[in-house]
Amino acid sequence: MLKLIRLNGTRFNSLFDIGCADGQLTEQTANLLQTPIQNVYGVDIRSFGEKEFTFLQCDFETEKIPLPNDFVEAAIVTQVLHHVHGWKNLLKEIQRVLKPNGILIVRESLLDSEVNQIMLDIQHGLYACCICDEMDADEFVNQFQTEYISQNDLQKYLQTLFRVRNFVFDGKDDKFQKMLVCLRQE
Ligand SMILES: C[S@@+](CC[C@H](N)C(=O)[O-])C[C@H]1O[C@@H](n2cnc3c(N)ncnc32)[C@H](O)[C@@H]1O
Fold first, then answer.
1. Is the pLDDT of residue 44 over 90?
2. What is the pLDDT of residues 60-117, one digit of tens each?
3. Does 46 sit in the ligand 1 pocket, CB within 6 Å?
4. pLDDT at 173 over 60
5. How far, in Å, from the CA of 22 to the mean position of ligand 1?
6. Could you give the count of Cα atoms lying within 13 Å of 122 in the half-sphere of its Cβ?
7. Does any ligand 1 atom lie closer than 6 A to the CB of residue 147?
8. Less CB within 10 Å around the terminal CB: N or C of the chain?
9. What are the residue ranges of helices labelled H in the chain?
10. How remote is the CA of residue 7 from the centroid of ligand 1, in Å?
11. What is the pTM of this model?
């Protein structure tokens, strides 16, 4: 991912992973960006136990990100925005926390077409069956609610908040098309 947006080898002193889940990607990214682990922050609604980086629990729908303004040099938000009704507010919060000139990497499913929407719903269903604890229909809908954000809406909104540094279609030939954007805070 970092190679695609030509950030591989660039050093960032602090990193923030929004929707970090179990933190695997957080730690890999911190490694690649050479970020000292004491300056790595991950936030998610669910806690996955002790981590080497600082984990903060927060619900993006109802709470502000518990970090100060202008705090981190690099942020990643991958496959999270489509789970959040208030995705625009979440992006504003990320902007608040990012330092001037900081970098934000966004990776999101392209959900314009019905085929891509159905593919993502199936993926969520399989994920819920295979990896999660047993849950009833209400819990499933609550946990896997999906905002079908169009590429156009997402791109336009990102452009109102940030300077686009690099934009790549990732996995264009598979059934799970994604877009990958690297942005710079003004
Ligand atoms: C598909 S996972 C992506 C995990 C990781 N970023 C990755 O790319 O592997 C989406 C993550 O967003 C989190 N999430 C969804 N809705 C959230 C909310 N309202 N507040 C905080 N985290 C949320 C989920 O708990 C989950 O860990």
1. yes
2. 999 999 999 999 999 999 999 999 999 999 999 999 999 999 999 999 988 888 888 8
3. yes
4. no
5. 10
6. 8
7. no
8. C
9. 24-32, 87-97, 114-130, 137-144, 151-161
10. 23
11. 0.92
